[in-house]
Amino acid sequence: MTGSKRIVSVVTGTNSNLGLNIAYRFLESVPPDVRVTLIVTSRTLPRVNEVISKIKNYHDNHLKRAGTLDFDYLLVDFTNMVSVLTAIYELKRNYKEINYVFINAAQGVYAGIDWVGATFEVLRNPLKSVSNPTYKIQKVGVKSADGLGLVFQANVFGPYYFLKKIQDLLSAGKARIIWISSLLSNSNYLSLNDIQLLNSNVSYEGSKRLVDLLHLASYNDLNNANITQYLVHPGIFISLSFLKFLNVFSYYGMIALFYFGRLLGSPWHNIGGYKGANAPIFAATKADPKFDKQDVKYGSACTIKGSEFIKISPVDNSDAKQIYSYFKELELEWDEKLKDQIADTRKEYP
């Protein structure tokens, strides 16, 4: 961590359940006498104002800090490369260094739930049904307005491009980058013939596999630039993005199954976003690269009684170099497409 008396931290997806709790726990974990500038992100100004209000309320009513907390924001849509470029320009204009970036991108293109399949899966294997479900229906072939695979761009390429172009700020701040992956990021979710996930019916899981591979291929290069990068996942918790597909009965049924999964011995059913934020904050504020390896994934876990701990998982590095090469080539393509484009830095993205 930088020896500066000011800490600048960017949390993407701040208004999600996980993003909000990352912000809460980050403020709990940094030195209480240090000034903190928290840069929140959203596509719209009302959501920015809402999340800043929540974080400020938590800070003022639950924490005892002598240091100042101030806020900034980025109106950024990672499925819009002009918006990404604008966010990069905004940071470069206003900051000389950045100390932390949490890449908490978790967009999916869900179409609903296969309720018949869900019922059979719960009856056949209740633990699998709430740990590695196959009944969530995802749309196939969805592209962004930029012509890229939407989930690929939102969760991986957009954030990757963002980080690459602010690397000078990250180096100056001896920054920590925390990529939020997923428990569900197995190698079978990704094909090298479909890197943008346009033919995949598990594009969300495939995007998290890409996150894993990008991290494995890039963290050594970043170490040489005075940037420390870690890969984490939040375990299983209540995600607000999927609630629109649930009614009151299925919602509470899901929570009951989560607790049942924990009772059956699953270490991953954190249920709440606060426990889910444990691994991201550990990697950001406690992990020591001299002892805590960077070629693994740190997971938020808990005991049957809900006591939280960090559980480390190996990560298959197959195809990491090929994936990294693909992203570097795509980065050059977009450098050319975006040259001379600077947009309104406070524009909202619907």
List keywords for this structure.
single chain, 350 residues, alpha/beta, Rossmann fold, 8-stranded mixed sheet, two-stranded antiparallel ribbon, 12 strands, 43% helix, 18% strand, globular, NAD(P)-bd_dom_sf
Give me a quick take on this structure.
The protein is of the alpha/beta class and 350 residues long. 43% of the residues lie in helices and 18% in strands.
Describe the 3D structure.
It is a single chain. This protein has 350 residues and is of the alpha/beta class. The protein has one domain: 3-Layer(aba) Sandwich (Rossmann fold), CATH 3.40.50. 43% of the residues lie in helices and 18% in strands. It has twelve helices and twelve strands. The chain has helices at 17-29, 45-62, 81-94, 115-124, 126-129, 150-165, 167-172, 203-223, 248-263, 273-276, 278-285, 320-338; strands spanning 6-11, 35-42, 69-75, 100-103, 110-113, 136-138, 176-180, 228-233, 236-237, 269-271, 296-302, 308-314. The strands form three sheets. The chain has an eight-stranded mixed sheet. Helix 1 links the parallel strand 1 and strand 2. Helix 1 (17-29) packs parallel to helix 11 (278-285) and helix 8 packs across helix 12. The longest helix is centred in the middle third of the chain and has 21 residues, at 203-223. The chain is globular and about 55 Å long. The mean pLDDT is 92. This is 3beta-hydroxysteroid 3-dehydrogenase. One of its GO terms (molecular function) is 3-beta-hydroxysteroid 3-dehydrogenase (NADP+) activity. Belongs to the short-chain dehydrogenases/reductases (SDR) family. ERG27 subfamily. Keywords: Lipid biosynthesis, Lipid metabolism, NADP, Oxidoreductase, Steroid biosynthesis. Pathway: Steroid biosynthesis; zymosterol biosynthesis; zymosterol from lanosterol: step 5/6.
